[in-house]
Amino acid sequence: MLMDVRVEHVEGWAEELAALTGGLGHLFARQEPQEVLADLIEGLLSDLGRKNGWTMAGRAGHATPHRIQTFLGEASWSANGLLAEVQAYAARELGDASATLVLDDTQVIKKGDKSVGVGHQH
Fold it and tell me: Which of 1, 30, 82, 100 is the most exposed place for a label (fewest CB within 10 A)?
């Protein structure tokens, strides 16, 4: 199902994203990981052709992907806490007595020759 996205739909997204990432601050020991999380989410939701550490760092205004890589590999945060927050957010924002949740593990089939070992993957 394709959705017709209009400007009025998008106008509040930045504020909603800021509220979402701001509400996750208690999961991190410092402010910087919370900021990097926002950069990472914005990069993943963006229209970047390639979504990797370098392209998302560049989009966020960073000279290198070091901050994003450090966040993903070394930052101290609670995975269980994040899972609980995501569950609560989904229930709050998507929950409805008449709603039906459909999960589909189908992914985009990867193909290409830009990386070693890239083949058809699901």
Answer: 1
Please tell me the total number of residues recorded for the chain in this structure: 122
Tokens of 95: 């929950």
Spatial distance between the Cα atoms of 122 and 111, rounded to a whole number of angstroms: 11
Using one digit for the tens of pLDDT, what is the confidence trace for 15-74? 888 888 888 888 888 888 888 988 998 888 888 889 999 999 999 999 999 999 998 888
**CA 12, 16, 22, 28 torsion-angle sign:** negative
Distance CA 6, CA 52 (A): 28
Residue 74 in tokens: 């070394």
Report residue 105 as tokens.
């593990």
C-alpha distances (whole Å) from 118 to each of 44, 51, 109, 115 are: 20, 16, 10, 6
Q: How confident is the model at residue 3 (pLDDT cuts 50, 70, 90)?
A: low
